[in-house]
Amino acid sequence: MRVLLINPKFPPSFWSLEQSCELLGRKTLMPPLGLLTLAALLPGDWELRLADLNARPLCPDDWDWAELVMLSGMIVQREGLLNLIREAKQRHKTVVVGGPYATSVPQEIMEAGADWLVRGEGETTIPLWLAAWQAGETHGVIEPGGRPEMALSPVPRFDLLNLSDYTTLGIQTSRGCPFNCEFCDIVNLYGRKPRYKSPDQVLAELELLFNLGWRREVFICDDNFIGNQTHARAILKKLIPWLKSRGEPFCFWTQVSANLGHNAAMVDLMTEANFGNVFVGVESPDEAVLAGNRKYQNLKNPLGQSLTNIGANGLTVVPSFIMGFDQETKGAGDRICAFVAQHNLPMVMLNLLQALPNTSLWDRLQQENRLTETGISADMIEASFNFLPTRPAAEIVAEYIRTVDYLYEPAKYLARSYRYYLAMRPTRAAAGKSKSRGADKQKDRLPFHARREDLLALLKLFWRQGIVADYRRQFWRQLVGIYRQNPSRMTKYLTQCAMGENLFPIRESLLARAGRSGPDKMPPA
Q: Which residues, at least 6 apart from 233, have a Cβ–Cβ distance to it below 8 Å?
């Protein structure tokens, strides 16, 4: 059986990181982990071909070759996913569709013409689908029979990838989240009781990546890596010696809750295991907003101090904020800007609230007749809602534009980055505490020294921010300052400068669409 696995194109968003990919000569950020896991669940004698449309377009040969087409996608990939289903049926292919969107909104998948709808997690549903397929059935809906234990999850088929297309590769060590935020769909998709892979399973996946020659970042895409701290420690304590024995081949991103900032021992373990960046769902600095959305985990400890502690101890925080909550009052954008400036948070994700199907928020808004026909959007430039907010939408959007203007203005972004890394403790090696090598253990050298593509990326950064930009004097002044005052954090600082290249165009596009000029319109910080 020849199977074409298709990942639809993502619309432009914060996570596209197109400029980072371009700097490194890569096609896109990260491959589709769900399809790679699906591939590992299919019979070993089937021929598989991955078509990631974020890396390269489909060609006629792909369609001609395929006997079976399998698709997966998230809600933000909806339009591309539905179009691909229709095209596959026009080409007389048997179409199987699964993944988060198909699980949440199954009716649209079937209306587009899919032969098979597979809902839920593949470890339980793919065996059911295979049994039906092998019994001669030609169409149907496969419903999950419970949530699988992660021990059943196979090592994803990373060998199907063209590794040079990607900036980062992903693995997963757990599914589910113990929290129950009103706006989040994780509980609906994966449950409130987290399930875990064993440390040996995690190392087996990393071993495959190592053997395939991967030597860049790995994103651990758990919903909350420290949701069960006993589990996280077990992985980290096995990961540290594994990394040492292989010359520290990887560094890691992941997602955590803000309470990490009050667990210094966990931060130390993570930095020793080459974790460099953590994504934190802050959502709002307003306590009434957090309480109204059941984000109680952000209320247990002083939120700003938690984020400061994480950064000071060696991890870069990427916080996410959302505007448009019911409990939000006028000036929310100004308060976000003040919070970010106070804690010198460099790279910030800012969203307008979108109601996701089958969340508590969706159900409540549906009961209140506040949902609109507008589709869910991940486009930061579009700046729209799919529901009727309690404040005037125009007022929220205007605040949103002013906030993006402030957060992504290059000079302010670079200034926050500079202060952030000046305040970060030196690496272990720089402090004389470790002779071993690693992301946090060695004195940072200029990044990109070992690889040609990294050297070219550094030269591009110097050209863009150090030569042609109108803030070039600030760039060089701060670079010298980091070198003199905290040289072991040079790599992190330059990487953060480069990350700004993804944000500055978002600001320019949003301001152009709004017909505004920028710096003179920024809110106070």
A: 266, 269
